[in-house]
Design brief:
By secondary structure, the chain is an alpha/beta fold. It has two domains: about 5-190, DHBP synthase; about 265-370, 3-Layer(aba) Sandwich (Rossmann fold). About 30% of the residues lie in helices and about 20% in strands. It is built from twelve helices and 17 strands. The protein has helices spanning about 15-20, 30-45, 65-75, 105-110, 130, 145-155, 175-180, 220-225, 235-240, 275-290, 320-335, 350-360, and strands at about 5-10, 25-30, 50, 60, 85, 115-120, 135-140, 160, 190, 200-205, 210-215, 230-235, 265-270, 295-300, 310, 340-345, 365-370. The chain has a twelve-stranded mixed sheet, sandwiched between helices. It has a five-stranded parallel sheet with strand order 15-14-16-13-17, with helices on both faces. Helix 2 (about 30-45) packs across helix 6. The termini are far apart. The structure holds threonylcarbamoyladenylate and magnesium ion.
Length: about 375
């Protein structure tokens, strides 16, 4: 039996209201403070509440309640060997889950929190094993979003929150995305509009005086360099997708196909925009010839006449592309696109996280055009 999910809309979001009829949800339009109080109470009673962060929507549960955490894995259909990030609203809450951070971690917290940086810290023994999938470290971050901070503060405990999507699908960047994936499976959703960053946090571990990036995000290697002797990438991230099976990533989530639309995504890269676009055009015609429904994501206004649907998902600016990526992939799903042809961003440091997500979402279907 599905449960009825409460949807707190603090602003009148037409998108959500217009689509609410088809989902098991109860819309509550009340002042923000009341919505937060209701949601926080449900969290402290073991409930599952989705809430906005600056990166993507998270599916929150008490990080100290094993039963609630089990429900998170069930609601998402998430493999149990993939640990969750604990979210805090002030530094005192750290003491409930992790050992005192070392100097590098402390300096990073001062510099980047609240913000999209998750730091692995030695976990305390009282923390339920399911949170960390039995690992000795817990990933912690302080999200930079007023609703998230207010909710965690009101609940008064660290809140575990994976992205609020069904496992494998693109992460949600609006409340409506969460409704589509999880209505009927979770207790509530706090609507806070669109997420500003659009892709998940940078996940790091600190090994002596070196920082290792386990999952790239908006905070780049360059941003982290002043805080450690060296900043490296988990070697797993540098491999082509086909090499992945031979290695074990430090962040277990990196080994799963992720962020993926239903259709087959192909991403085209290359120095010459003209050559890239003509290859995209050929791929499109091929897909049409075998009767596939197609979608094209471009970086400029070039028109692909053979596409069933096309969207300029951004210009080359990494910020815009990150914000738009998951929404664009979800639109492809809504349109039941079978072949998605995307123009890839420049392969540089600013676009590194984006390329990591595209690699996962496409299952490694990268085509380089000379
Ligand atoms: O921006 C974000 O990080 C979002 C928002 C909601 O805060 N959350 C998020 O959570 O993306 P999730 O569960 O979708 O991804 C967490 C990633 C996974 O790749 C997981 O394997 C890794 O972080 N991770 C979590 N705890 C870990 C740990 N103790 N050791 C190694 N990797 C860990
Ligand atoms: Mg996720």
């Amino acid at each position: 039996m599905p449960i009825v999910t409460k949807l707190w809309v603090t602003q009148l979001d037409h998108d959500v209201r217009d689509n609410s009829g088809t989902h098991p949800i109860e819309v509550r339009q009340i002042p923000t403070e009341q919505a937060i109080a209701q949601a926080a109470e449900m969290l402290s009673e073991g409930g599952l509440i989705a809430f906005p962060t600056e990166t993507v929507y998270g599916l929150g549960a008490s990080a100290l309640d094993a039963h609630a955490l089990t429900r998170v894995f069930e609601a998402k259909g998430r493999p149990q060997d993939n640990p969750l990030i604990a979210h805090i609203s002030d530094l005192q809450q750290l003491g409930q889950i992790a050992q005192v951070p070392n100097t590098i971690a402390q300096r990073l917290m001062e510099a980047f929190w609240p913000g999209p940086l998750s730091i692995l810290l030695p976990v305390l023994s009282n923390v339920p094993k399911i949170l960390t999938a039995g690992l000795d470290y817990v990933a912690v971050r302080m999200p930079d979003h007023p609703l998230a901070l207010a909710l965690i503060a009101k609940a008064g405990m660290p809140i575990a929150a994976p992205s609020a999507n069904v496992s494998g699908k693109p992460s949600p960047t609006t409340a409506l995305h969460v409704v589509g994936d999880l209505a009927g499976r979770i207790d509530g959703i706090l609507d806070g509009g669109s997420c500003e960053v659009g892709i998940e946090s940078t996940v790091i571990e600190i090994v002596e005086d070196t920082i290792v990036i386990l999952r790239p995000g908006k905070i780049t290697r360059q941003d982290l360099l002043p805080y450690a002797k060296a900043v490296l990438f988990d070697p797993y991230l540098k491999q082509g997708i086909e090499a992945h099976t031979a290695m074990t990533p430090r962040a277990p989530g990196q080994k799963y196909r992720h962020y993926a639309p239903q259709g087959q995504l192909n991403v085209f890269f290359g120095e010459s925009v003209h050559n890239v676009q003509s290859m995209m055009q050929s791929a499109l015609i091929q897909a049409k010839q075998v009767g596939k429904k197609t979608a094209v994501l471009t970086l400029d206004a070039h028109v692909f006449t053979h596409a069933d649907w096309q969207q300029q998902w951004g210009d080359e600016k990494a910020e815009t592309l990150m914000q738009q990526l998951y929404g664009a992939l979800r639109t492809c799903d809504d349109l039941r696109s079978e072949v998605i042809i995307a123009q890839g961003p420049p392969d540089d440091e600013q676009h590194h996280a984006l390329i990591n997500r595209l690699l996962k979402a496409s299952g490694g279907n990268f085509i380089t055009v000379s």
